[in-house]
User: What shape does this take?
Amino acid sequence: MNPQIQEILDTVPISALATANSDGVPWSTPIHFSHDEQFLYWFSATNTEHSRNIEENHLVSLTIWSPDESNGLVGVYLQSQAVESGDRQSAEDTYLAKFGEVPESFSP
Assistant: This one.
């Protein structure tokens, strides 16, 4: 993986998650995220707008940008499909490894 992309994924805790409802109306929300070699994880209640949108349409877009602008504005832009994994432990473990504590938003 590109070292600049890896650095952003390893050091930035928040992403903008974009979804769309069944009518195509876009929705963007900030999320805390973590990742491993295969997946990007976040926690969301099932009744949030973005969770309901993902139930109808699994396509998502994420923007993760570095707050360090010394080399210009640098970010990672991802398009993928989101599904509920049910793997809470991996999500918590990867976040703990990155940042040392899990945000309250990850609480059940």
Notes: The mean pLDDT is 88. Residues 35 and 41 are 6 Å apart (CA to CA).
